[in-house]
Each structure stands twice: as structure tokens, then as C-alpha cells.
Amino acid sequence: MRIDPDKISRTQRKIVAPAETSAPSSVxxxxxxxxxxxxxxxxxxxxxxxxxxQRAKEALSRIPEIRQNKVxxxxxxxxxxxxxxxxxxxxxxxxxxxx
Length: 99
Fold this sequence. Notes:
single chain; mainly alpha; 48% helix
């Protein structure tokens, strides 16, 4: 069996339609363009929800994982003998599934 490359490319053009090039509603939606073949531009448009998630991730990345001020305060309470563990509350939360 012989495969004709011309038939394949004609079939691909029929199956794969060019992407619609509608302009994004706003720059804030996160549109990114890159030049494609034959002068057309590929386009990615993020939803408003995706933009919000991206902003939240960026904000979280600026917060340190270990809050030194809280650690220092707890260390001081332990050293001073003022740190009391309420075992009943801990047990209650474990059994109820609350954090």
C-alpha cells in the first residue's frame, strides 16, 4: 500500500480548521500572542477565574512558610512556662474532624 503525502496534507487541512482569531475582551484577561505560520497568530485567553487563581498563587508565594514572629512567641511562652496544652480541646477537634 502506498501512502500519498499530498492526500494526507489535503485531508489534514479539511480536518484541522484554522483557529478562530477573535480579539480578547480585555488585556486583563491575560491574552498572549505568538507569531505562527503564514502570518497568523496563536492566541491564549485565560478566564477571569484563572487570572484570579494566578494572582492568589503569586500572593501566597510572597508569604513565608514559617512565620518567625509566631514561632518566637511560642518559644518564649514555653521557656517562661506559660504554654498550656488543652488536651480536651485537641481530642474534641480530632474526633469532630475540625482543624
